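Input/output pair, single chain:
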Amino acid sequence: MQQMPPEMSSTAEPAVADPGYEECCAYFDEQENEVAAQMMEMMTAMPAFEDIEARTFSITGDDGTDIELTVYRPASASDPLPGVVYLHGGGMAILTAKHPPCVRWAKSLAALGLAVVAVEFRNGAGKLGRHPFPAGLNDCTSATRWIGEHRAELGISTLTVSGESGGGNLSLATVLKAKLDGWLNLIDGVYALCPCTFGDYVNAAEN
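Output:
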């Protein structure tokens, strides 16, 4: 079995040697439960971030689905602020934007003087349901374009798309799709942290 990214490490094992779609989803469901339980401990150690305000609302994506966005920004800051579209990790299969490490990262960026918009995109498995590709990418591109078009009301100046692991993959894919679809002008930059760009990336890095 291929090695998993750190945030997806788990004792869960596939039920069969060559799993099908249902077996893969069941594996990721179990994995998400394990990781979520481990990461809940981070909530108790998380800084208070007393100056950070958070606002959550929903927009409608290009394929008609509701996409939840949470905006984190310093309560004492004046507009406009540099903006970050944050796409969380989890291999595009598990976890959510409300996962403790994701919230901490978003608030940490906001504490540096940024306006961070966390996107709750659809995963391929896990508690948010089973949504095969390109559902998650559609959510990320819809959200990014909407944010870019509503900079003024969000108090955002520049806009950078960023994420880690699976979110890093989605960050790159979002920018590439923006270029193909003709709205790259809404994006000022992209920063992909340890992007999961192919299945055996961990083993390749070690070799």
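The two ends are 16 Å apart (CA to CA). Confidence is low (pLDDT under 50) at residues 1-10, 201-207.
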